[in-house]
Amino acid sequence: MASATPASINSHAMRPLPRAFVLPYGTRASLARHLGRVAVTLLVTLLAGCVAPARHGSLPAPPVPPVVTQAPQPAPSPARTEKAELQPVSYSELPGWGDDRVSAGWQAFLRGCPALEAQPRWASVCEAAGSVAADDDSAVRAFLEARFIPHRVVAPGGAGEGLLTGYYEPLLRGGRSPDGRYRHPVYAPPDDLITVDLVAVAPDTRNLRLKGRLEGRKLVPYWSRAEIDRGRAPLAGRELAWVDDALDLFFLQIQGSGRIRLPDGSLLRVGYADQNGHPYRSVGRLLVERGELALEAASMQGIRDWARANPAKVPELLAENPSYVFFRELPSGNDGPPGSLGVPLTAGRSLAVDPSAVPMGAPVFIDSVMPGSEQPLRRLLAAQDTGGAIKGSVRADFFWGFGDEAGALAGRMRQPLRMWVLLPVP
Questions:
Q1: Are 381 and 350 in contact (CB under 8 A)?
Q2: pLDDT on residue 174
Q3: Closest to 284 (Cα-Cα) out of 324, 250, 244
Q4: For residue range 143-165, what is the model confidence (pLDDT) as tens digits?
Q5: What angle do CA 137, 140, 141 make, to 5 degrees?
Q6: pLDDT by residue (tens digit) across 204-224?
Q7: What's the CA gap between 47 and 33, in Å, rounded?
Q8: What is the pTM assigned to this prediction?
Q9: Spatial separation of the C-alpha atoms in residues 325 and 275, rounded to whole Å
Q10: 372 contacts: CB under 8 Å, gap ≥ 6
Q11: How far apart (Å, rounded) are the C-alpha atoms in residues 62 and 1?
Q12: What is the CA radius of gyration of the chain?
């Protein structure tokens, strides 16, 4: 016990004596005996407040050290990107954060680390991530909470809710050479397609890539979809394959990657290589505006149903979207197709975003619902891809994987979205 303070000693000294100590009058010897008893008892009383009784012969407890309170750390400041404000929040504000299997999203993020390690703010956290058991949810969650700060993605006007759509890797039927069945070419980029990158002289154009072709000494827009379909572009010899359905080819360009089943049963994988520079225009929205499709039916399946009922109108409808995507052949394998970050996408854990709003490669937590239901969709993903239609602050495209089941989910997905990007602690 710590030494008594003067105040505590005084309190002991002022305590009234018990009745047993009232002195009887009598002989001098009797008085001396009573005074001796009083002195001993008073001494014991005083000492009892100063020394704790020893336990089993142990030494007195050491003094209790003073409590040191750490000075509060300043709250993180909001971050900004070109199209969004990133507001720091606590993990308790992420709905379902404690319920998600975060290790799955973490493994998707780790696949992107080789593409991030050249950036100083990601290098140290990617290096430290190697010490975390990637399949241990508790360890991953603890690491994220210690090394990352969640930031809610908010539009410049303050809107925090946006749109989540889905995409997938489709399976098409085709061949390496054209015939009566396989008539629609899948092209590699043409030799005359020029990309203009002005970042070196105008850094604020880092997310702008101009596409065009030379006409004399002048750079003009590249051919549109309608012009390419009419044969205006010099694409002879750039065919990777031919497929049997023009609408399937159109959706392949929207998805950005796919697999083509060849006549011998083998699979040809193709992925995004380039684009003609024209803006993307949604044909589903166009059908709604024309009154040919109800808004709730403006999905991939709804457009297919419309096309089967109106085959003669399909070429004209597709030409309304001037954007045209060119492909490259990919190695065979079961990994997901490469996204814009340059790493394979992970089904259910990779996200396409607008890089002007969300940093590429960053972990992102979303709050949405499953297609066609009220089941919550709350999970950790990695921002590893982009898309021509994915523009805006709170806007993302959820990668569902390969095949018909993934396509059914992707085609029906048009859900409300809230999202948080996890940024490394400064």
A1: yes
A2: 98
A3: 250
A4: 999 999 999 999 998 899 999 99
A5: 80
A6: 766 667 899 999 999 999 999
A7: 22
A8: 0.77
A9: 4
A10: 412
A11: 7
A12: 36
Name which of 354, 341, 389 is nearest 81 in CA terms. 354
Pairing of strands 267-275, 257-261: antiparallel
At 265 the three-state DSSP class reads: coil
Adjacent-strand bridge partners of 194: 212
- The beta strands (E) that lie in 216-252 are given as 218-220, 239-243
Say if CB 284 and CB 299 are below 8 A apart: yes
Q: ∠ CA 224-291-322 to the nearest 5 degrees?
A: 5
State the Cα–Cα distance between residues 420 and 380, nearest whole angstrom. Answer: 9
Query: Which residue in the block uniquely carries the two structure tokens 């710590």?
Result: 2
Q: Render pLDDT for 229-272 as a digit per residue (tens, 0 to 9).
A: 999 999 999 999 999 999 999 999 999 999 999 999 999 999 99
Going by their DSSP bridges, the two strands 171-175 and 257-261 should be labelled as: parallel
Q: What is the DSSP letter of 338?
A: B
Q: What is the pLDDT of residue 205?
A: 66
Rounded distance, CA 349 to CA 104, Å? 7
User: How crowded is residue 286: how many other Cβ atoms within 10 Å of its Cβ?
Assistant: 15
What is the Cα–Cα distance from 345 to 272, expressed in whole angstroms? 13
Element of type H or E holding 152: strand 148-154
Q: For the sheet with 210-215, list strands across it.
A: 194-196, 210-215, 218-220
Looking at residue 284, its pLDDT comes to 94
Alpha-carbon span 78 to 84, nearest angstrom: 11
> Which residues, listed in sequence order, are joined to residue 174 by a DSSP beta bridge?
243
The order of strands in the sheet holding 257-261 is 184-187, 239-243, 171-175, 257-261, 267-275, 325-330
Q: Within a 13 Å sphere around the CA of 186, how many CA atoms are in the beta-carbon half?
A: 34
Could you tell me the two tokens for 26?
């009598």
User: What's the Cα-to-Cα distance from 231 to each of 176, 223, 225, rounded to whole Å?
Assistant: 20, 10, 10
Helix/strand/coil for 124? helix
What's the CA gap between 16 and 8, in Å, rounded?
Answer: 15
239-243 vs 218-220, strand pairing mode? unpaired
Query: Which tokens go with 373?
Result: 């239901």
Q: What is the pLDDT of residues 89-136, one digit of tens each?
A: 999 999 999 999 999 999 999 999 999 989 999 999 999 998 999 999
First-last CA distance in the chain: 44
Identify the helix (H) or strand (E) that includes residue 419: strand 414-424
